[in-house]
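Quick one: structure tokens for this chain, please?
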Amino acid sequence: MTYIVVENCIKCKYLDCVEVCPVDCFYEGENMLVIHPDECIDCGVCEPECPAEAIKPDTEPGLEKWLEVNTEYAEKWPNITQSREIPEENKKFDGEENKFDKYFSTEPGEGD
């Protein structure tokens, strides 16, 4: 089992999770984060830190697509280990449906 980031992170991209990760396995895209499944040690400390509840164990049914997204983009995007301020407008996207089709970006984020 590993933890992965799912759709609700898109456009929210809260960064509370990155500072608690003991192995620094978060990677930053332009508008979401992903977890590198091969680096995650399955400790689960990040899951309760996410206000958007966008971190899930990959054992939950129906998350195969998200395991693929996390695996692919963790190889392409920069590592992020420190939290920073997020725009206030991000909160309005929390809970919105179909964010992948509307907003997902393959562009990398800033990283550390």
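Residues 3-87 form a domain with the Alpha-Beta Plaits fold (CATH 3.30.70.20).
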